[in-house]
Structures are given as structure tokens and as C-alpha cells.
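Q: What structure does this chain adopt?
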Amino acid sequence: MGRAVPLAGLLIAVASAAALGLAFLGQYRFDLHPCVLCIWQRWPHGAAVLLGLAAWALRGRPTVSMSLLGLAVVAELATGGIGAFHVGVEQGWWQGTAGCGAVAAADDLASLRALVMVQPVVRCDDVAFALFGLSMAGWNVVLAVALAGIGTAAIARDAINGKEDRP
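A:
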């Protein structure tokens, strides 16, 4: 097996960690509170970090490394899919989930007021930040598709090179 799979795993891990870091920076430094779809997009990035690092760390075991990279690609496609759904909600193409902009249930008005004061209500159809006309969810889709493409290309390259190495 070649070196494409472990390097792609490392790239996916670093890029997904950077995406998570930027999301947390926006949340905690710039008060860009995430909606439920924003939070859902974070989980597959976390999985991609772990899977990409594992693919790189286990580079001496080509089949395992390639399988782990394949799972990292699936994680990237998952976050990209959630991001694409989120963009559709932002653009008004369809409605968000039941949790988009919902406030947790409270027994009385005082409890409801306390809940709202502790945690802001963030609607999924509000774009908190955009760069060059793309929301953060849109950029997440671009990143996820690019990383999934890189991972898939690495798997294909190493699979082809592996077949050429056999007698």
C-alpha cells in the first residue's frame, strides 16, 4: 500500500479538528451560539478526527488503515449531509427539525423565563455568520465534500497501487 491513505487520514483529522476549533471559537469568543443542526454537524467531525488519526497511526496495517479512512469519509459525508440540510433550512427550501428554535418545556412561566435566560434560543433558519455569501453550514458542506473526495481518491490510489504490487 502507498502513503496516500495515511496522509489523507491525517489531513482529514487536522481539517476536521480545525473546523471544530473554528466552530468553538465562534461560539465562545464571538457569541455565535449554535442551533441544533450546528451541533449535529460537529459530531461527525469529531468522529472523522478520531478515525483519520487512527488511519494514520495504523499505517503499518494497510487494510485496517484503509477501512478506517473509509469510515472517516463516511463521517465527512454525514456532516456534509447535515450541513446541506441546514443550508436548505437557512434558505427556506424546507423546514428544520422539531428542535430548530424550540425551547425546552417548562412547568410554569417562571421556569420558562429561567430557561430562556440561561440558554439563548437559536433558530436554524437564521444565518449567524456568512463569508463570501456562504453560511457556516455552507462552508461545512464545501469542506466535507472536499475531504470526502480526498479520502476517496487516496483509497482508490492505494488500492490500485496495491494491486500493481502483487505478482
